[in-house]
Structure formats: structure tokens, C-alpha cells
Amino acid sequence: MSETPEAHLKQMGAPYVKLIGEDGGTLLVLVRGGRLHDMTVPGGQAGTSLWTNPAALETGGWNTGGDRTWVSPEIEFFTDGSGNYGIPQQLDPGRWTLDSSTGREATLRMTCELRHRASDAQLRLNLEKRFATLPNPLLMNTSLAARDLAGVRYVGYEVRTTLELEPVAPDDGAAASPSGYCSLWSIMQLPAGGIALVPTRGRVPPLTMFAQREPTDIEGTAGGVRIPCGGSYSYKLSFDAVASTGRYGYIRRLGASESSLVVRQFNVNPAGVYPDYPPDRRDYLGSCMQIYNDGGHLGGFAELEYQSPALSIDMHGRATDESQVFHFTGPTDKIREIAALLLGMDDLSTAEL
User: Fold this and answer.
1) Integer Cα distance of 140 and 323 in angstroms
2) How confident is the model at residue 259 (pLDDT cuts 50, 70, 90)?
3) Which of 88, 96, 328, 329 could form a disulfide with 34 if both were Cys (CB 3.0 to 4.6 A apart)?
4) How far, in Å, CA of 204 to CA of 287, rounded?
5) Could you tell me the sign of the dihedral formed by the alpha carbons of 282, 197, 195, 324, in that order?
């Protein structure tokens, strides 16, 4: 598709909000699905930062790309009693509405009901998402003032997501449901062909959530893990809340001398419950930060994912999650320098970018 993401949204008649940061970068907030649909650095080419799927928007599918919010555990909310997988339409795309907007922020809301598979409990979820532009962090700290940022362009945003959970009362005579959990699950889709940079506290191998075959090109270091994203097979890798630093990124070549870096920061509670578990580890409660490689099966993308500490499904609860996203493009050597600065991973040579 040659038209820009904004032109396509206009052509489709899809409600959206355009936010403009103080640096001149732009964000497109898509009401359908409650997503950040695109982010473009000043003077940059729109539609190259996040992975998006215009065809899904045209056909009414869920997988439109961008930065979205689901809930976990995935097995409990996305599979039925026979193990069949499906996306609950009431969650995605759901029925999001625009609550308010200004030139720098937008707030969306949605209410839906989901069934927790293991307990058969019905839950009402009230969701609110607030997107707001963010200034360049490299210009906000005087210790970094002397750095040469010539040629580096930036756009960034913060997203604040609030979940209010209400158990729906069971029918008369129904047995009380066993305990279960519900967690906010943030998922950012990025074009394949880059490298996920995952800082960790010490040398920590990831847990394989699932894989068509185990990836063999992952490189672990004392300070993190490098995960090339591409190829023809899918997998998901997870890092627990003790190992996670609450920050990770994705670096990708844009041309012979230009590269892109996306960094996400989020809150981690090592004592929190993170209930997204692999099929053979129902007792596992630590899955905080995840990398998914699509392998071309759903369009060719990578996902930077993270979970927030969970709520019990047996009582009314409220949770709020905040994260910040920083996106830079520019000369490859400077993008590598920023990656090392923000992620502490300076073992990536320019030739490998």
C-alpha cells in the first residue's frame, strides 16, 4: 500500500486521533481496537515504525497491528475447553470509544465480558487507555547534553491503561469458582528483520512459552539477551519478573546507513503474580516480559510484550499500568550508541546492525 497510514484511515472512515509531540513527531491513535496505530519521527516516512496490516482493517479482522492491550493468561481467555484458540471479538476489536482528546493526548474506554476457562467464571472488564506524547529523554537530562545527536530523529509516547475487574454473579446454586487471575497484557508489533535487545539482571536464559522449533541464533550475555527476529518459524520467549529490568528494545536497519530503535519502559514488581504460563507449567507465575517471533505466519512481525501484576478474578479489583515508548531513527552508529545508553547492551557491532 503506497498511501500513508493516516490517508488509509481517512479513506476507510476509521475514527482516529492524531497527536503531535513537541519535537514534531506524530502519533495516530486508532479508536477501533484501542491501538496506537502509527508513530512517525519528524520528517520520517510514515508507516515504517510499527507493523500494521491494512488488509485486516478493511476486512474487519483483529490483527491490524500497532500497539494494543489484551488480558492474560492467554490459555484461560483465548482457548476453549477443547483447546481451540480464538480471539474474543468483545476484547479485540471490542467496542472502544473516544472519551477525550487534545493535541497531545487521547483517552479511550471500553467495557466487555470474558469467560475464564478453568474456573468458568464470567468477568466484566472496564478498560481505559490514555495516550500522551513524550519529549526526547536524551534532551531532558543535563548529563547527556554534550552528546552529538545530529541526524537523530525522535518521537515518543506514554500509555496509561486502567483495568477495573468485576466478577459477574453466578446463577443461583452455582458453585463458587476456584481462584484465577487476570492481568493486563501489552503487545507492540514491529516489522520483522530486527533484533530484540532484552536487558536482564545477570545471565538469564529465557523460558520457551511455545516454539515450532527452538531458535538457535539467540545470544546471551552477562547483561542481556539478543534475539534476532525473522525466519520462517514462530516462537515466544519469556523472562521472569526477577530477571526483568523493566526496559527492552528493538533495533532494525532502515537502509545502508540508517537504523531504527524502539525502546519500551514499564513497571516490574518481583513479588507480583504474572500468570501467563506455558501449556505444561500451569503453576508458573513469573512470566513478565516476552518476545514473540511470527516467522511470517500472520504477516511477518515481531512482538515486544509485557504483563502487569495480576488481579484475582474472585473479587472486584483495579489495576493501573504505565509504560513509555521512545523511538529513534538516524545514522546507524548513533542509533547503536543510544541503544547502549538506554539498554546497557553495547555488545552489538555496527556491522551486525
Assistant:
1) 17
2) very high
3) 96
4) 13
5) positive
| Claim: this prediction has a pTM higher than 0.90 | yes
Does 57 have pLDDT greater than 80? Answer: yes
Q: Residue 12 is inside which H or E element, if any?
A: helix 5-12
pLDDT of 27 > 90? The answer is yes
Residue holding cell 477525550?
Answer: 100
Domains in the chain with CATH codes? 65-172+181-352 (2.70.98)
In which residue are the cell numbers 514534531 written?
24
Sign, Cα dihedral of 109, 38, 301, 12: positive
pLDDT at 98: 99
Cell 490459555 appears where?
Answer: 75
pLDDT, mean of residues 215-242: 93
Give 81-135 as a DSSP string: TT--B---TTTTTTT-EEEEE-SSEEEEEEEEEEEETTTTEEEEEEEEEEEEE--
Q: Distance from CA of residue 67 to its chain's centroid?
A: 5
Report the amino acid identity of residue 234.
S
Reduced to 3 states, what is the DSSP secondary structure of residue 342?
Answer: helix
* pLDDT above 80 (res 147): no
Residues paired with residue 301 on neighbouring β-strands, in sequence order: 191
* CA dist., res. 224 & res. 343, Å (int): 9
Find, among 283, 287, 278, the residue nearest to 308 by Cα.
Answer: 287
Under 8 Å between Cβ of 274 and 182: no
Q: Are 49 and 40 in contact (CB under 8 A)?
A: yes
The residues near 230 (Cβ < 8 Å, ≥ 6 apart) are 192, 193, 293, 295
